[in-house]
């Protein structure tokens, strides 16, 4: 049991589904679409199970990397090194948890080229898990960057009307950010003579100066686009709006988190002085993100666009929390990412539910949904309140922790950040009222049917987790505490601030 | 007499190739139609055997004909690639040739002669043999460019190629004569010792002309103008040959010329190379955006790729040759793979596809071809984990190691611009609606080539770690030290 390379199994297991899907298409040419759905669901559930086994054997009392695997390949240009700590395991669980939900959510919705769709999701799952497992700086880049390919295809093939434009924008924006990071990665690799992250942590030190700042900016370019931070966020509303429901879920819940994960894994520990130097800059951008995008969200006519802007605003809390350099802030940032993954995923799934019935995302086309879909209205209410950050939902914990940390850092920024909570209530409740309450103006709404079993299956687990971690966040906080604390201590040691 | 026999043994692969080519030409002209399959098979097998012979050859360094010809690890590696790729080009064209003209036995023979020229080129050790070899490889290429006789584009491309090629040969010859005039020798390794004691200005002048001639052959800016027209006009199998094999030969000779005779002139030529490579990347990436013709687009893409490969030369460090060789191998494999897919596809009039929009909806027609082409395109764009990423990774390690961080950054940003037109292929094949049903001519050999290239590009990490490729390349790199 101990010797099994569990992380590699976890990472590459989804790929096992691919040959079966292709094989299924060859042997059963009529019904292969259903077969591929079942294969993808089965494989992703097994993957989730393995991630639970990993969680079960995970030691939360150490900040060292666990489940280490190391195979030198590529003649020293890269090492296959995997390992996880408390921060990465959380995102791995989030990925493995959401992928089956996404597959169920697409069950009856995707009818065109289902086999390709399922293959894309399985590849995407492998790459997402790999990104969070990789402990080699080049291997991380490989996974981080490869995610573009399946996501580009998912948006472009199964997206809405302007899918081509959005897919290209998504691809080129993220690629441009990432190539700058590649320069920084190569610089660090050449400076330390190794590509393995744990060794780089020990060996790499660079005086604070122009070079460290440039390296930091190169990493920032990539993570800020991915995050996305204001003003690099413009690809996100387009990508979200045009992507199919499950694509939006993965995009909001996992891909955005790669940016925050990157800050925690690279910018903070490797370049602490520059991180400190630029923290005001990050705060200003985050405050603008929180306030400006909340206001922008309020004037949106498109439901998905509204949620996309609200994601940008919520990510603002994450970046602020991370760059407070204190345990509350970092824990709050991580928790906020995790909870936002659940909440935004749930919101996009809910939008998908009504979109599939009405085929419109315009807020004005809805109204009075509560009278025909009461169960749905209940679900959406919980998710909306969680998005606002109501106490008792997981959204509250992350925001509370980060705002608390920001208070100890700088009270002015804390004031503005806290105002974001009110603003999110403004657009969140406004959206809820417009869609769910008010009079039915559109006749099509009258004939809506309430949630189906499949939709309940996708929404209930998210609902349970959102409330559970809102009332009792300790399991998550315990999981990440030691690693976050290790991160904070390592920053203080090397930075001297 | 002993000297002559030794020389003949060293040069044996080229001799065999020359004799094979000439005898096949004879057979072809006497037996015409009946012989086409025989000629194809025989030339393919000859090239394949010769390529493996180069792979196992143990020559560290050997000179033939009083230093006229050199056989070292670098040249045998280059010849391995050249022979092997030429062999693949012959199979790839066989199917196309059968549909086009059953009597066209010249095609494989011309490829053989051109390959012979390239083999001599990478082994050339003096300026005269270099010139002769370049001419021997170019002349068959001019004929190949016009091979599609009924197409006026093809004739145009051949004539253009010929005139501009003649001009570049003139430049090369002028540079060679200047260098001979100022140093008094034509042998590459002797020039190196004499450069410091000779007239510096004159040699720099000669070097610039020599470089212009060779840069023309790799179609890098500012001598790139012929490439788009020639690529577009030539038949698809010919374009595939142009885009892969001659580039390898020209790149090797560029490396040899820069590092053997002019290793004391690194500061002078590295500026030229930086200009050539960066402007190639920029022009290749930007201009390709407006292209609709597939082959024209591939021409610009190859200009950009040559720019990336030569970037690693601009460091002036001999160990960076490794990056260039890796880059070239990956570029050639992706190119061969891409063309092995493209040759299969015909539009509804049974004509070769020309425009990118002709590929619309290919993912519905033939998923495996569409996925393969998409993979090669992502690889060209340098998206990990495909081989194209590692090609760029090697080059940028070389650059940043020498402190050329800003050059690396700008080149990478230009590569993002280039990514735009590569992913356009994916968009057309996967996102667009099917316009017409394409006719896919399936051929087993093309499928085999495609799958080999596919595995190489997708699993480059494993190829690099398991096969001796990395070892061979690093040995080839050491040959110039």
Strand tally of chain A, please?
2
Number of extended strands of chain B: 4
User: How many domains comprise the coordinates of chain B?
Assistant: 1
Low-confidence stretches of chain A: none
* Rough outline of chain A: globular
Form type of chain B: globular
For the record, give the distance between the C-alpha atoms at the N and C termini of chain A, rounded to a whole number: 43 Å
* Mean model confidence by pLDDT of chain A: 89
Topology as H/E string of chain B?
HHHEEHHHHHHHHHHHEHHHHEHHH
Determine the strand fraction of chain A and express it as a percent band: under 5%
Structural class estimated from helices and strands of chain A: mainly alpha
Largest sheet of chain B: 2 strands, antiparallel
* Helix-residue proportion of chain B: over 70%
The side-by-side strand order for the widest beta sheet of chain B comes to 1-2
Strand order of the largest sheet of chain A: 1-2
Low-confidence stretches of chain B: none
Q: What would you call the quaternary organization?
A: heterodimer
- Total number of helices of chain B: 21
Ends apart, CA distance between termini of chain B: 31 Å
Structure in words:
The complex is a heterodimer of chains A (497) and B (481). By secondary structure, chain A is mainly alpha-helical. Chain A contains 22 helices and two strands. In chain A, strand 1 (66-73) and strand 2 form a beta hairpin. The longest helix of chain A is centred in the last third of the chain and has 32 residues, at 327-358. The model of chain A has no long low-confidence stretch (mean pLDDT 89). Chain B has 481 residues and is an all-alpha fold. Chain B has one domain (2-478). Chain B is 75% helix and 2% strand. Chain B has helices at residues 2-10, 12-31, 36-56, 73-100, 106-122, 127-145, 152-183, 188-194, 200-218, 226-233, 236-259, 266-287, 294-311, 321-342, 362-365, 367-381, 387-401, 405-431, 444-458, 460-466, 469-478; strands at residues 61-64, 69-72, 345-346, 439-440. In chain B, helix 2 (12-31) packs antiparallel against helix 3, helix 9 runs antiparallel to helix 11 and helix 14 runs antiparallel to helix 16 (367-381). The longest helix of chain B is centred in the middle third of the chain and has 32 residues, at 152-183. Chain B is globular. Chain B starts with a helix and ends with a helix. The chains are: A mainly alpha (497), B mainly alpha (481). The A-B interface holds A 73-75, 77-78, 113, 116, 138, 141-142, 145-146, 148-149, 152-153, 156-157, 163-164, 167-168, 171-172, 175-176, 179-180, 182-183, 186-187, 189-190 and B 363, 367, 378, 383-385, 389-390, 393-394, 396-397, 400-401, 405, 408-409, 412-413, 415-416, 419-420, 423, 426-427, 430-431, 461, 464-465, 470.
């Amino acid at each position: 049991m101990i010797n099994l390379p569990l992380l590699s199994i976890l990472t590459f297991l989804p790929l096992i589904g691919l040959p079966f899907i292709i094989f299924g298409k060859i042997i059963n040419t009529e019904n292969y679409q259903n077969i591929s759905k079942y294969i993808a669901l089965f494989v992703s559930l097994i993957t989730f199970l393995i991630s639970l086994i990993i969680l079960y054997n995970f030691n939360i009392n150490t900040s060292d990397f666990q489940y280490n695997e190391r195979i030198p390949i590529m003649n020293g240009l890269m090492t296959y090194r995997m390992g996880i700590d408390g921060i990465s395991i959380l995102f791995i669980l989030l990925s493995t948890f959401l992928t089956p939900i996404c597959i169920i959510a697409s069950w009856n919705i995707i009818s065109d080229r289902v086999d390709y769709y399922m293959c894309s999701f399985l590849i995407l799952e492998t790459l997402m898990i790999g990104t969070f497992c990789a402990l080699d700086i080049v291997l991380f880049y490989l996974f981080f960057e490869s995610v573009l390919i399946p996501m580009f295809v998912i948006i472009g093939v199964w997206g809405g009307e302007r899918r081509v434009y959005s897919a290209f924008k998504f691809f080129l924006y993220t690629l441009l950010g990432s190539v700058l990071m590649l320069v920084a990665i190569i610089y660090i690799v050449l400076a330390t003579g190794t590509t393995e992250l744990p060794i780089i942590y020990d060996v790499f030190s660079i005086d604070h100066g122009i070079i460290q700042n440039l390296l930091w900016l190169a990493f920032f370019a990539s993570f800020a686009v991915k995050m996305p931070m204001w003003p690099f966020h413009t690809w996100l509303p387009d990508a979200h709006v045009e992507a199919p429901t499950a694509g939006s879920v993965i995009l909001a819940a996992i891909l955005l988190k790669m940016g925050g994960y990157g800050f925690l894994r690279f910018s903070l520990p490797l370049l602490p002085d520059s991180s400190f130097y630029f923290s005001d800059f990050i705060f200003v951008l985050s405050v603008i993100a929180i306030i400006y995008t909340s206001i922008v969200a309020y004037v949106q006519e498109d439901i998905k666009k509204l949620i996309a802007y609200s994601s940008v605003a919520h990510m603002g809390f994450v970046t602020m929390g991370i760059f407070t350099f204190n345990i509350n802030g970092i824990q709050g940032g991580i928790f906020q990412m995790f909870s936002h993954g659940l909440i935004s995923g749930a919101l996009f799934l809910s939008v998908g539910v009504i979109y599939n019935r009405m085929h419109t995302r315009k807020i004005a086309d809805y109204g009075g949904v509560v009278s025909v879909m009461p169960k749905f209205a209940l679900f959406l209410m919980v998710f909306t309140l969680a998005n606002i950050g109501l106490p008792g939902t997981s959204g509250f914990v992350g925001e509370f922790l980060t705002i608390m940390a920001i208070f100890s850092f700088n009270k002015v920024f804390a004031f503005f950040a806290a105002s974001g909570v009110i603003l999110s209530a403004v657009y969140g409740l406004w959206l809820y009222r417009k869609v769910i309450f008010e009079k039915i103006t559109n006749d099509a709404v009258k004939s809506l049917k309430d949630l189906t079993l499949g939709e309940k299956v996708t929404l209930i687990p998210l609902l349970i987790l959102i409330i559970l971690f809102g009332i009792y966040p300790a399991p998550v906080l315990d999981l990440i505490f030691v690693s976050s604390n290790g991160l904070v201590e390592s920053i203080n040691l090397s930075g001297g601030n | 007499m002993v000297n002559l026999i030794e020389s003949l043994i060293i040069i044996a692969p080229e001799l065999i190739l020359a004799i094979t080519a000439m005898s096949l030409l004879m057979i072809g002209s006497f037996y015409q139609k009946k012989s086409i399959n025989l000629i194809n098979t025989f030339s393919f097998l000859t090239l394949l055997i010769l390529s493996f012979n180069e792979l196992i050859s143990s020559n560290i360094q050997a000179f033939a004909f009083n230093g006229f010809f050199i056989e070292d690890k670098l040249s045998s590696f280059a010849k391995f690639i050249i022979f092997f790729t030429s062999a693949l080009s012959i199979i790839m064209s066989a199917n196309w040739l059968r549909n086009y003209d059953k009597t066209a036995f010249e095609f494989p023979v011309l490829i053989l002669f051109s390959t012979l020229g390239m083999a001599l080129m990478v082994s050339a050790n003096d300026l005269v043999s270099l010139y002769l070899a370049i001419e021997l490889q170019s002349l068959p290429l001019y004929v190949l460019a016009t091979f599609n006789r009924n197409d006026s584009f093809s004739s145009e491309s051949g004539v253009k190629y010929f005139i501009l090629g003649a001009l570049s040969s003139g430049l090369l010859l002028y540079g060679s004569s200047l260098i001979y005039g100022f140093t008094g020798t034509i042998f590459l390794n002797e020039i190196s010792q004499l450069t410091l004691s000779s007239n510096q200005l004159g040699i720099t002048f000669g070097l610039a002309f020599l470089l212009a001639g060779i840069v023309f052959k790799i179609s890098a800016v500012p001598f790139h103008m012929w490439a788009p027209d020639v690529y577009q006009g030539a038949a698809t199998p010919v374009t595939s040959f142009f885009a892969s094999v001659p580039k390898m030969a020209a790149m090797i000779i560029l490396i040899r010329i820069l590092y053997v005779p002019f290793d004391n002139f690194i500061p002078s030529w590295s500026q030229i190379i930086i200009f050539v490579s960066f402007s190639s990347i920029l022009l290749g990436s930007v201009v390709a955006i407006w292209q609709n013709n597939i082959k024209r687009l591939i021409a610009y893409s190859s200009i950009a790729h040559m720019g990336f490969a030569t970037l690693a030369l601009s460091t002036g460090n001999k160990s960076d040759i490794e990056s260039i060789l890796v880059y070239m191998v990956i570029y050639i494999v992706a190119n061969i793979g891409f063309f092995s897919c493209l040759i299969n596809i015909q539009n509804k009039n049974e004509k070769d596809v020309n425009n990118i929009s002709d590929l619309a909806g290919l993912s519905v027609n033939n998923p495996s071809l569409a996925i393969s082409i998409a993979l090669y395109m992502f690889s060209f764009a340098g998206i990990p984990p495909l081989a194209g990423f590692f090609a760029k990774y090697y080059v940028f390690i070389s650059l940043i190691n020498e402190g050329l961080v800003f050059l690396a950054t700008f080149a990478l940003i230009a590569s993002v611009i280039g990514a735009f037109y590569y992913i356009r292929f994916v968009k057309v094949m996967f996102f667009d609606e099917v316009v017409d049903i394409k006719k896919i001519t399936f051929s087993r050999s093309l499928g085999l080539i495609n799958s080999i290239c596919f595995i190489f590009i997708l699993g480059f990490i494993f190829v690099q770690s398991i096969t001796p490729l990395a070892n061979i390349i690093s040995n080839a790199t050491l040959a110039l030290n």
